[in-house]
Design a protein that fits this description.
Layout (H helix, E strand, L loop, with lengths): L2 H9 L11 H17 L13 H6 L2 H20 L3 H25 L5 H21 L4
Helix pairs in contact: 2-4, 2-6, 4-5, 5-6
């Protein structure tokens, strides 16, 4: 056994961490939470600010809610079942969704908190997608 193999073997010790403490679970939970918020008939979020006009032009508030809820639930399911390909695909979809929402906030008001609020999970989702797409083992 040479020196490089020994170093590689010692540096790749498995890291024990709970499944629910991951960036992937955070963005899935955020999607489920926002989906439930948008589905709730008591709150008409799209009518509160002009930021949501572009989103409302594409689909009603309830459709956005069900879409986010579904994507988050599928991502949670894929995470718990260790379905790497499904996780990567839905992380990319979620990254595009967060990016679109952040862009809507940026176009409505460049100083809006929504740019950071939705831009951060976009970066997390995209980074996790890239990590999954470059990893070869399941």
């Amino acid at each position: 056994m040479n020196m490089i193999t020994e170093i590689q073997r010692t540096e790749t010790k498995p890291v024990i961490r709970p499944r629910w403490l991951s960036i992937e679970c955070m963005v899935a939970t955020l999607a489920v939470g926002l989906g439930i918020w948008l589905i709730n008939p008591a709150w008409k979020t799209f009518s509160l600010a002009s930021t949501y006009e572009a989103m409302a032009a594409l689909a009603p508030e309830e459709y956005w809610g069900w879409g986010l809820l579904g994507i988050g639930a599928i991502l949670w399911y894929a995470h718990w079942r260790h379905l790497r390909t499904l996780r990567a695909v839905f992380l990319l979809v979620l990254a595009m969704g967060w990016g679109f929402i952040a862009m809507m906030f940026a176009m409505a008001n460049l100083g809006s908190w929504g740019i950071i609020l939705f831009g951060t999970p976009m970066i997390y989702s995209l980074g996790t997608f890239i990590w999954y797409s470059h990893e070869t083992t399941d």
